[in-house]
Amino acid sequence: MTYDMLKNALEPLGLRSLGDCPDGDMTITLIGPDEPAFWPIFIASAEYKDGNADPMDRWSLRVLTEIADTLDAEPLFPFGGPPYAPFFTWAKQTGRFWASPIGFLVHDETGLFTSFRGALRWQKPADIGTAPQPCRTCAKPCTAACPVGAFNDGYDVTACKTHVASPAGTTCRTQGCLALRACPVGQGTRLPAQAAFHMEAFL
């Protein structure tokens, strides 16, 4: 399998490589949405339309398993546990993810709006990123964007959920977390309908 083969397999699905993590003589390539192309492709899928639970996880399982079978790789997923695969640890080893000022992972190209649909383990040298951490030269608007200060001292999940579920949290609920949207990296690439889908799953 080559990177060109992987890219050609991922693009029609609205997916992209987010970085490589070394794993002995193997490489784990993290896979996530290529936004905004991803959402229209996903909502046209059978999993989204069938009304059953966890449509995005089921879609990810199907399409990435098919790609892995075609390209002689091993598919890995952040769901289906416990135990759960250590995607957070893998991400920080790619050289393309860092802990942001609000604690969430930030990616060099997708910013705070990053999600993992899965990963592929395959035999090749890892291509470790060399981009500088974007937060170093950023005014850090994410730290002040939350209307209830849910990130002021760690992450107050209860305060976040209570606000998002309330009438005052309509914007967060329908367009996505204001703190994540404040990140200038990759800003504006996640469609509101996709953000709303994730917020509904969060609640």
**Helical proportion, percent range:** 25-40%
DSSP, total strands: 6
Largest sheet: 4 strands, antiparallel
Strand order of the largest sheet: 1-2-6-3
What percent of residues are in strands?
A: 15-25%
- Radius of gyration (CA) equals 17 Å
**Annotation field: number of helices:** 9
Shape: globular
Question: Could you give the distance between the termini?
Answer: 39 Å
The average pLDDT is 95
| Derived structural class | alpha+beta
H and E string: HEEHHHEHEEEHHHH
Low-pLDDT runs of 5+ residues are none
In quaternary terms, these chains amount to single chain
Topology:
Elements: H1 3-10, E1 15-23, E2 26-33, H2 38-42, H3 46-49, H4 55-71, E3 74-76, H5 87-92, E4 97-99, E5 105-107, E6 118-122, H6 157-165, H7 170-175, H8 178-181, H9 192-202
Antiparallel strand pairs: 1-2, 2-6, 3-6, 4-5
What do these coordinates show?
With about 200 residues, the protein is α+β, with helices and mostly antiparallel strands. The chain contains 9 helices and 6 strands, in the order αββαααβαβββαααα. It has helices at about 5-10, 40, 45-50, 55-70, 85-90, 155-165, 170-175, 180, 190-200; strands at about 15-25, 25-35, 75, 95-100, 105, 120. It is globular, with a radius of gyration of 17 Å. The chain starts with a helix and ends with a helix.
